[in-house]
Amino acid sequence: MSRPVILAGERSAEPPDEIAAIVLAASASATSADLTEIFVSVQGEGVVAGQVHLFLRFAGCDLRCSYCDTPGSLGLDQVDRGVRIGGGLLRGQPRREPNPVTQERLLQLVDEAVEPLGHRPMVALTGGEPLLRTPYLVELLPALRARGHEILLETAGTRVENLERVVSWIDLVSMDLKLPSVSGEADLLGAHRAFLEVARNADRRIQVKVVIDPRLDLAELERGVRLVAEQDSTLPFILQPEFRSLRTTDEAHRDLIREAVSVARARLTDVRVLPQLHKYLGML
Fold first, then answer.
1. N or C end of the chain: smaller count of CB under 10 Å?
2. Which DSSP string do the residues of 4-69 spell out, in sequence order?
3. Residue 170 lies in a domain
4. How many domains, the chain?
5. Nearest to 278 by CA among 114, 74, 106, 126
6. Roughly what angle, to the nearest 10 degrees, separates helices 103-114 and 134-146?
7. Rg, the chain, Cα only
8. pLDDT in tens for each of the 284 residues of the chain?
């Protein structure tokens, strides 16, 4: 079944049953998974921005955030094109391999990608929502750790039971705090609270990222800040201006950023305003 292409800034036309079908298909196999990209590049977000990472971008997501900058990874309609391998810091022209990708083949591709680097970079699990692939990750992550890779999980922070199954192999949990005024999604604070509790109980490194744009409701942000502070007021809290719509050349936008920082600093000690570095560098 073909699915509508979702452009950044648009709401999905997909009904709940189609989202459920994506979730079911994504979690069906422990031996193979659909990916959209495998590449080495500069991490552009959060506390590890600037580091060289190996990115594994999984296909399929159960949310439809209006600011999503990887709409090609949301559904499963593009997986037949195969997984794009290369780009970023890798030399040569990108190529494609067929989906789904077995664990054995993915580990081979990982080894090939990092061999020119001379070291084992952190592996960033991204998407889409990588936790939809939990049965696959349960087998994959120990093998990556055995090769010497640290693991970064980039996640919407809603799939609590999935996190419980893989958290012991994660080094850094990067949770997006989804504010309805910006994401267009429902209020997810209850799920975020439970998700953070799992990560903290496992003694994982955690960062919380919040995308902000001119639609930001500061009262929503305050509620999100309070939730994070209840867990740990020292957690890195990243205010990430949406690249296309929030400009520091606009005085009103600068005011909004200042107000957002003030709200966050009222309860949290490590508040940072960090844009997406890779967008400014023009890299994947």
1. N
2. PPPPTT------HHHHHHHHHHHTS-SSEE-EEEEEEEE--SGGGTTSEEEEEEE---S---TT-S
3. yes
4. 1
5. 126
6. 40
7. 18
8. 232 323 333 344 455 677 888 888 888 899 999 999 999 999 989 999 999 999 999 999 999 999 888 888 888 877 888 999 998 887 888 999 999 999 999 999 999 999 999 999 999 999 999 999 999 999 999 999 999 999 999 999 999 999 999 999 999 999 999 999 999 999 999 999 999 999 999 999 999 999 999 999 999 999 999 999 999 999 999 999 986 666 666 788 889 999 999 999 999 999 999 987 766 666 65
The two structure tokens encoding residue 267: 């309860």
pTM: 0.90
CB–CB of 196/206 below 8 Å? yes
- With respect to residue 202, please indicate whether it lies within any of the assigned structural domains: yes
Crossing angle (nearest 10°) for helices 189-201 and 218-231: 20
Classify strands 122-126 and 35-42 as parallel, antiparallel or unpaired. unpaired
Q: How far apart, in whole angstroms, are the C-alpha atoms of residue 189 and residue 180?
A: 10
Could you tell me if 172 and 152 are in contact, meaning their C-beta atoms sit under 8 angstroms apart? yes
Domain of residue 121 covers 16-281
The answer as to whether 173 is a domain residue is: yes
For the chain, report the end-to-end CA distance as a whole number of angstroms.
Answer: 29
Domain-located, residue 6: no
Beta-carbon contacts of 23 under 8 Å, excluding residues fewer than 6 positions away, are 60, 62, 132
